[in-house]
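Consider this record:
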Amino acid sequence: MKVLIVDDDPDVVEALTLTFDLLQPQCSVLEARDGETAVETFSRESSDLVLLDIILPQMDGYEVLRRIRQVSDVPVIMLTVKEEERDKVRALGMGADDYIVKPFSALELLARIKAIQRRREVEPQVAEATPLVCGDLRIDFLEREVTVADRPVKLTHTEYGLLVCLARNAGRVVSARALLTRVWGPEDAEDLSRLKMCVQRLRAKLEKNPSRPTYIVTERGAGYRLEMPK
């Protein structure tokens, strides 16, 4: 696995590099000390994981994340001193896979990386090979393609996983806890803000009017439902 560490603090970079050298020796580590170098390095190297600080010279971590998500759904973990909820919500809403506040333990970081890897190794399976058609929305499970009115929609791994979970239960309400457990894992089963941000991203990509969704419908106090046309 190739890991890109993006942080302007040399002590943090050194500590993370040492962690991987000692505990994950099969990993190779790339470094970037500012946002622009991070984007350039990512475009040049095929990284499997990005550890990304928010406060960076030249280009902050939010912008780096935005540019990465334009081209890739590679796992991104934010590592930052910014501990306010609004920062976490913003990062998760932009597609970060996890958010860890400094200081943190090496064992916690490795555990969270392994949790992300486990989730990605289990690709959501659907019993029916036939594409699901829901109005203008079409999900081709075999090709892993999603279109709206014949327009291809690019989804991250997590967004696609959430959509598939809803599609497997099309027309039925799926609880927030069940969605969090299936898509993110049992350790995140109570993180409602993470689910809400992912639903918002999906609606922004699928719905004509995300504020009045017709596909992914909220059942207040119960969960979410993929609405089937009547």
